[in-house]
Amino acid sequence: MSRQDVRQEIQRLIEEYQLVGELLTNLQAQHATVSELLEELTTALDGVRLLKGGAGERLVHIGAGLFVKGVFETKEVLTPLGAGYHAFLDLDNAERVLQERIEEYSRLKTSLEENIGKLAERAEQIRQVLERLGIR
Amino acid sequence: MAQIPPSLQDMVNRFNQAQAQLQSVLLRKQQYEAELKEVDKAISEIEKLSPDAKIFKNVGNFLVPQTRDAALQELKERKELLELHVKTLSRQETMLREQLDKLRDEINKELARLKGGEAAKGGG
C-alpha cells in the first residue's frame, strides 16, 4: 500500500468516524424523546387504572409537589386517537389505546437501542484503527 | 495530482446532485408514511365508535366537536392525499436510483479509461 493510499484510507476513516458520530448523536436524541413519551404514556396509563378502581376521593398532583383532594366519578376519558382527533372512551378502551401506544414506542426504543449499540461498536473499531495509525 | 477532466467533473457533480435529491425525496416520503400510519390508526379507532360518539378535532389550542361521519370523511380524504404523495415520491425515488446507477457506471468507465491512458503514457 503506497503512502498516498494510506493517507486516503485515513481520510476515509476520519470521515466515516465523523458521520457515525453525527448519526449516534441523532439517534440518542430520538431515544431521549421516545423515553420521555413512554414515561408520559405510562403515567397516563397508571392514572386510567387508578380511575378504574371506582369512584372516590383521590389526591391529584397539580405540580411542584402540590396535591389537591378530588372526587372522581368518571366513566370516560377524552383520549387522543391520533392525527389530531380525540374521543371520549370508556376506561377499558382508553387503557387499550394507551397500552397499544406504549407497545409501539417500546418497540421503537428497543430498535433505537440496537442501532445505537451497532454504531457505537463501529465508532470504537474506527477509533482503534486510527489510534494504531498514530491518530488521536 | 492529475487534473480531473471537465466531463468527469460534470458527471460527479450530477451524481452528487442526484444523491442529494434522493435523500430529500426519501426524507419527505418517510414523513408522509409516518403521517399515513397515524391517520390509519385514527380511522381504525373512530370506526370502532358508535355513530353518536363525542369526537373532537384539534384546531390550534381548541378542541372542536365533530360528528363521527365528518371525522371519518376528513381522515379518508387526508389518507387518499397522503397515499398519492407517497406514490409520487416512490416514482421519483425509482427514477433517481436509476439515474444514480447510470451515472455511477459512466463515472467508473471514465475512470477506467483515464487509468488506461495513464498506464499507456507511463509505459511509453
Question: Could you tell me the number of beta strands of chain A?
Answer: 4
- Spans of chain A of 5+ residues with little confidence (pLDDT < 50)? none
Q: Shape of chain B from CA axes?
A: rod-shaped
Using the coordinates above, name the CATH class of chain A.
Mainly Alpha
Named CATH architecture of chain A: Orthogonal Bundle
Explain this structure to me?
The complex is a heterodimer of chains A (136) and B (124). Chain A has 136 residues and is of the alpha+beta class. Chain A has helices spanning 3-51, 91-132, and strands spanning 56-63, 66-72, 76-82, 85-90. Chain A is 67% helix and 21% strand. In chain A, the strands form 2 sheets. Chain A has a two-stranded antiparallel ribbon. A two-stranded antiparallel sheet of chain A has the order 3-4. Chain B contains 2 helices and 2 strands, in the order αββα. Chain B has helices at 6-47, 68-123, and strands at 55-59, 62-66. In chain B, strands 1-2 form a two-stranded antiparallel sheet. In chain B, strand 1 (55-59) and strand 2 (62-66) form a beta hairpin. In chain B, helix 1 (6-47) packs antiparallel against helix 2 (68-123). Chain B is rod-shaped, with a radius of gyration of 26 Å. At the A-B interface, strand 3 and strand 4 of A face helix 1, strand 1 and helix 2 of B. Strand 4 of chain A pairs antiparallel with strand 1 of chain B. Chain B: Belongs to the prefoldin subunit beta family. Chain B: It comes from Pyrobaculum arsenaticum (strain DSM 13514 / JCM 11321 / PZ6). Chain B: This is Prefoldin subunit beta. Chain B: Molecular chaperone capable of stabilizing a range of proteins. Seems to fulfill an ATP-independent, HSP70-like function in archaeal de novo protein folding.
In brief:
The complex is a heterodimer of chains A (136) and B (124). Chain A is α+β, with helices and mostly antiparallel strands and 136 residues long.
Present the secondary structure layout.
The complex is a heterodimer of chains A (136) and B (124).
Chain A: H1 3-51, E1 56-63, E2 66-72, E3 76-82, E4 85-90, H2 91-132
Antiparallel strand pairs in A: 1-2, 3-4
Chain B: H1 6-47, E1 55-59, E2 62-66, H2 68-123
Antiparallel strand pairs in B: 1-2
Helix pairs in contact in B: 1-2
